[in-house]
Amino acid sequence: MAEELNAVIVSIEYRLVPKVYFPEQINDVVRATKYFLEPKVLEKYMVDPGRICISGDSAGGNLAAAVGQQFTQDASLKNKLKLQALIYPVLQALDFNTPSYQQNMNTPILPRYVMVKYWVDYFKGNYDFVEAMIVNNHTSLDVEEAAALRARLNWTSLLPASIVKNYKPVVQTTGNARIVRELPQLLDARSAPLIADQVVLQDLPKTYILTCEHDVLRDDGIMYAKRLESAGVEVTLDYFEDGFHGCMIFTSWPTNFSVGIRTRNSYINWLDQNL
Q1: pLDDT at position 269, please?
Q2: N or C: which end of the chain has fewer CB atoms below 10 A?
Q3: Would residue 58 show up in a list of annotated catalytic residues for this protein?
Q4: CATH code for the domain of 124
């Protein structure tokens, strides 16, 4: 990337669970990014302040999206982000029954059960909640805190018919309100950028989102692209029908998959054209 884009690439070594929990990972990347954006630091590394992109894949895509949203609201920043590029990002924990979650619930690398456990780990929660969250008991109709946010990820309207197919929403009438009471982080836009206010989304920079068919997170990315477009943001949604979660790292023998090479090249080409 550094060679092909003639760019300085910075990878932030944010702290991980169980050393720290949400929102410390976000605080780490915000601090590091703000520091890097200081004029003297950009000058030290010979970085063009008008040519800055924030990017991440999977959990890193979640953090990149969260940082992007925070920076749009920070008037103190002299240098702004030109682009954001999100690779199969994790964007919400309110609905674990989107079409892609239903379709790929047992798909290798990232099955649904594992993804829900990761969320519980992130919030230092109780594994006893996992089974209830899998069937959306944490955002049932009787959980008032979730009511206003549920419309922001209404996939029956945000996803195209080719994605929705014959899948049906899973909305419980009564559920387990204790989950949200103990884990209010579930409804925090810093953990779930997909549920951010429209006024926050409209100030985001030009965006690239890569999604894969064989990935529980596919619909998170598609819904975010739709919400950003509705807010007036220029978005490129790069969808790979033969892609799977994490495929971009499989580019070296003996796991040099075609889709890994194609996703990587497509991502770098977009950056080359827009950065």
Answers
A1: 98
A2: N
A3: yes
A4: 3.40.50.1820
Specify the pLDDT at position 69. Answer: 97
Q: Smallest Cα–Cα separation from 214: which of 104, 53, 74, 127?
A: 104
Query: What would the two tokens of residue 119 be?
Result: 């969320």
Let me know how many helices (H) and strands (E) the chain has, helices first. Answer: 14, 4
Q: Is residue 171 part of a domain?
A: yes
Provide Rg for the chain, Cα atoms.
18
Three-class DSSP category at 243:
strand
Number of neighbours of residue 157 by Cβ within 10 angstroms: 10
| Count of alpha carbons within 13 angstroms of residue 199, beta-carbon side | 1
Give the structural domain span for 155.
23-273
Non-local (6+) Cβ contacts of 29 within 8 A are 12, 14, 63, 64, 66, 67
Residue 10 maps to a domain: no
Contact call for residues 17 and 122 (beta carbons, < 8 A): yes
Torsion 75-77-80-86 (CA) sign: negative
* 233 part of a folded domain: yes
pLDDT of residue 88: 98
Does residue 21 sit in helix, strand or coil? coil
Total of domains in the chain: 1
Residue pair 164/99 in contact by the 8 Å Cβ criterion = yes
Q: Is residue 125 part of a domain?
A: yes
Q: Which tens digit of pLDDT belongs to each residue from 122-179?
A: 999 999 999 999 999 999 999 999 988 988 999 999 999 999 999 999 999 999 999 9
Query: pTM for this one?
Result: 0.97
Helical packing angle, 24-36 and 59-72, nearest 10°: 60
Give the tokens for residue 3. Answer: 């060679």
How far does the chain reach from its first CA to its final CA, in angstroms?
A: 12
